[in-house]
Design brief:
The protein is α+β, with helices and mostly antiparallel strands. It folds into 2 domains: 1-29; 46-113, SH3 Domains (SH3 type barrels, Roll), CATH 2.30.30. It has one helix at 3-25; strands spanning 46-50, 54-57, 66-70, 75-83, 89-95, 101-105, 109-113. A 5-stranded antiparallel sheet has the order 6-5-4-1-7, with no helix packed on it. The radius of gyration is 26 Å and the shape is globular.
Length: 119
């Protein structure tokens, strides 16, 4: 092989490896996991009641840890809402008369009044 051809081949291979390494080694964005932290704020005035006995959650998904089991008819002050990992609507809030806070699916609640805004 002639020296010029060797140099061209070497430069081409080096460029290919550098380019390949740049794309393979680059970090990729990963989707949020269901139980990842979600920021919340008390920016709403909604009052709701639990339709049945449900677990209040630490994060907005059924597989996340429980805070407490809440009996049917318990009043819940909704602070804000969030579309979770599965594209289901959940709200963060507080159980009336306590400082117990957590997430629950809107499917678990019966609306009583007020508004609820996005977290």
């Amino acid at each position: 092989m002639r020296p010029a051809r060797k140099l061209t081949t070497l430069l081409g291979a080096t460029a290919l490896l550098v380019g390949f390494g740049a794309t393979v080694g680059a970090p990729t964005a990963s989707a949020a996991a269901p139980c990842d932290y979600v920021a919340y704020t008390n920016n709403s005035s909604a009052v709701e009641k639990f339709k049945g006995t449900y677990n209040l959650k630490t994060r907005p998904a059924a597989e996340c840890d429980n805070v407490i089991s809440v009996p049917a008819g318990t009043t819940f002050y909704s602070w804000c809402y969030h579309w979770n990992y599965y594209k289901n609507l959940w709200v963060y809030g507080r159980i009336a008369g306590t400082d117990i806070r957590g997430w629950t699916s809107v499917a678990n609640l019966e609306y009583q009044g007020g508004d609820v805004n996005f977290c």
